[in-house]
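User: Hey, my collaborator sent me this sequence without any context and asked if I could get a structure. I don't really work with proteins. Can you help?
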Amino acid sequence: MRLTTKGRYAVTAVLDLALHQEGGPVSLAAISERQGISLSYLEQLFAKLRRNDVVSSTRGPGGGYKLTNNVDEVSVSDIILAVDESCKVVDCDDTDGCSGGYQCLTHDLWQELSNEIRTFLDGITISEIMSQEAVNDVKLRQDKASII
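Assistant: No problem. I've predicted the 3D structure and written it out in structure-token form, which is a compact way to encode the shape of the chain:
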């Protein structure tokens, strides 16, 4: 699977959002500070997340973002696909073939692996990640660091 910085940062930012939205909309500046992701990059990611109904925005003072759906309904693959990432292991294409219009020798193997990865990521919700003790430990540490 080609999970680039875009996909990793999107999942991290949405998880941060989910962990902090109980107090109202979360600003991208706050996510940027806690996660060390550039604000301009977050703006690009959240524009895609908003267009794909993963998050919604509120303008004005106290504005920011919140998840459109409940944390139990947002999967990791929803986030990755919303920012135009692929769950494919390689560039084998069902329509054009892999090389010269024909399937490569290992096409079915990589296609099956891609399907397994997609199924795995479909089965992991933000809620499940939020319930992990290690995630909550990191959240507490980041929250303390952002207050100082």
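In plain terms: The chain has one domain: 5-86+125-147. You can pass these tokens on to your collaborator as they are.
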